[in-house]
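REQUEST ID: PR-0412
SUBMITTED BY: lab tech R.K.
PRIORITY: routine
TASK: structure prediction, single protein chain
INPUT:
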Amino acid sequence: MNPRNQQDRKEYELDAARRISEALFQHLSVEDVVEQGLKIALEVVNGEAGCVLLANSDTKELVFSHAIGDRAPKSGTAFPWAEGIAGTVFATGKPVVIRDAKEDQRHFGEIDHLTGFHTQDMIAIPLKRWEGHPIGVLEVMNKRDGRLSQDDVVILTVIGAFTALSIEQARLFQEAKLAEVARILGNIGHDVKNMLMPVLCGTSLLKDELNEVFADLPKFDPDKGRASHETCLEVVEMVTNNAKRIQDRVKEIADCVKGLTSPPRFPPCLLHHVVASVFDTLKLVAQEKGISLYHEGIVELPEMEADESRLFNAFYNLVNNAIAEVPQGGSITIRGQIESKGTSIHLSVMDTGRGMPAEICDTLFTSRVISRKPGGTGLGTKIVKDVIEAHSGVIAVETEMNVGTTFHIHLPLMR
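STATUS: complete
OUTPUT:
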């Protein structure tokens, strides 16, 4: 490379570094930082495709955080962090240039096979702070005007350093925000717990008063009086049970703020008790909207090892979300059956609602979930996923516009 070309190259690299710093440090979410860093990397080296993989220390995997290009792997796809070229770069902390991927034994061809993409040349750069272990890997594939070379490594290393620094900054910002949220939740939780005490006392007094009043009513229409009495007692029971559940949840918030986390407990549990409790809690809301609640095969399910409180929260969220989507005259059904091997169960939560568009369905079970309910946070399905995973289960969804949505849940009977 002659001096003039070297000078042009240095100026180009300095200009790219300036653009990177300006672009990355205006984003405060990890997802935005990753996406922007990858876009700049591909633009600078004129690459056809690329991806950012972030390390998950709990599972010891590299996870596709973002990918660009035809037939790109889906976000969340993962593989062991000791495998592939990315695994080598992550382990050594050193970049590599691959002139022909199919000739390199380290190339993890399964990803190409899954996506149908053909990797030719590539560069893999470790994402790490100025000092310390890598937090992930940046990969760029298939240079459009030639082959990726050592010259491209220099600018990609700068991009990788800025990207890693920005990711850490975004994570610190999110952690600080979560700490502030936890502090506020602690205060709110304390107040809610105190305010629930008179609710519980009041419902107890109301129950006694109702029993006394109905006992002294004239017997002009005993059937009507009995039905009215039973309805009042059902409402009182529903308020009491939910107030107690709210108290339990508030205690979890308070414990979390104090640094205490209650792990799930897995005593023997009957799912039909859980489903019955959810339906009892939500039946008045469903009746008001003209929606029917059904269950099929739940009573016949055998006893399983499960955290009943957490399962209640999961099914409550699914049914409550469905009520908002189902038109009058529709229905919500929870169906259960033993799987073929007899060691797990398949639960389906089916509604006859309006279905979900792709942009909402794709964000389900993530922190980026979108809610269509007025005032909704969208966290309900994320809570559901966390509960199912705590039980070593899996959850999936299928939906069709103007037909309905079905959540499929697979849970082991024994842990």
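NOTES: The two ends are 64 Å apart (CA to CA).
REVIEWED BY: pending
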